[in-house]
Amino acid sequence: MAGLATTLGSGAMTNSLGDLEEAEVVLVFGSNTTENHPVFGMKLRRMARTKGTKIVVVDPRRIDLVEEAVLHLPLRPGTDIALINAMANVIVKEGLYDKAFVSDNTEGFEEFLKVIERYTPEEAERITGVKAEDIVRVARLYARAERAAILYCMGITQHAKGTDNVMALSNLALLCGHIGKPGTGINPLRGQNNVQGACDMGGLPNVFPGYQRVNDPEARKKFESLWGVKLPSEPGLTLGEMMEAILEGKVKALYIMGENPLLSDPNLHHVEEALSKLELLVVQDIFFTDTARFAHVVLPSCAFAEKDGTFTNTERRVQRVRKALEPKGEAKEDWWIISELSKRLGYPMDYSSAEEIFEEIRKATPQYAGITYRRIEREGIHWPCPSEDHPGTPILHAGKIARGKGLLVPVEYRPPQETPDSNYPFALITGRNYYHYHTGTMTRRSKVSSHYVPEPFVEINPADAQELGIADGDLVRIVSRRGQIEARAKVSERVKKGEVFSTFHFSEARVNLLTTDQMDPVAKIPELKVTAVRIEKI
Predict the structure, then answer these.
(1) CATH (residue range 426-537)
(2) For a tag site, which of 14, 30, 218, 442 has the least CB within 10 Å?
(3) What is the fold of 195-382?
(4) d(CA 287, CA 270)
(5) What are the distances in angstroms from CA 45 to CA 7, 21, 253, 495?
(6) Tens-place pLDDT, residues 27-44
(7) CA-to-CA separations, 460 to 237, 384, 491, in angstroms, rounded
(8) Facing residues of 466 across strands?
């Protein structure tokens, strides 16, 4: 993550969920924590109520966590960098930054200053809509705290400038020395239960397990020796790039495992067109998904309670998963399916258990080298854990920043790819709801969840609803430059005038038909959080 990005991992929490309880101040950027991470969300509530932790929520919507916050900064969608740079401007101008830490532990300070001096609180108010005095207040609160932490989620990353957003947050932590200690750090809350583990294992197109780059000759030599095959020297494609390559005729087969891009990807007409063009589509999942409708082959796999293995959670804790139930029907463990397919394709994988695979992980991934099944029998261990006598690392950068010095990276504000205009006057924000999860593959099969939220909805501000003659519960049409869907209007002050919110859980109202497929140039993450739309009463 910018100056704090190291070979330790991409986008990993610097701190543990437990030590964050020691924070005096917590800045929550783009994370609807109580709905998307309800267990940790309840911990934040408790911290505010019993410990007096000062929580600041930076989010366009008035999410539930605002109830516990000392301040809510309802910025315009996609204007985070202007706000964060203005906070840095205040911190430097008022001499609140940690001068000794910056001098000893960072580089690039002078270039950084040249950029942030232009982002005064008044200029940020013009861009973000957040009052200048509130920006100043939060900057002082964060800088003066002995221990202050930053939490963020997809409200920060799912933008065409998501990488710059994270860099800006990294700058803020480095400026104040809020890193390497309990109750501090930059902490991305992962969107799904084993995203961190998947990334650690090389589930990214540019790295082998342990974030060892595919274009590094030494890393490639290591894995060629371990696996006995010649490996490519060029990074592969991201999901968005795969869709383009399919349409260009460069990719003819696709293997999708535990993913439902026909609901979760942007510009779904584009995705549909690509999937329809494939000569072979294989979908491996626990349920028959929307994407599986396009598949030539569907491979049924086990759910979490039907298999053994490990998950690595959002705080880098490697934990055991144990088989509690026998799989139903023809479902098999994921590793078994992959191994059997590999054998049939000519590369033998003769694993006999998940533990045997984990032993290979220890050889391949330095951060996991000291973790064994025996050591995590009762309690998980935070990587990096380089040896069996190492206790694990709940806090990264303790004592010294892992890359040597943290790099302060100047980042400039750029408007979102789409902004509201006369034809599409609303900014659509997408996200999740407490009762449903991701594309609804599991939760929409739950009678309880479907009882509380049975159908798609769109939140609209009362003033906008009145102007459009829309009442709560009316059926409305949401239209963008790429498509349209229908949903029930939910008149609510959770969204500001000129903004609307909807979820992507419902296949009958696929909100990502509307979103742009513009991507961050570095991380290749699509801009799902800001789309220009209009609302029509049906």
Answers:
(1) 2.40.40.20
(2) 218
(3) Rossmann fold (3.40.50)
(4) 24
(5) 34, 11, 47, 22
(6) 999 999 999 899 999 999
(7) 37, 45, 5
(8) none
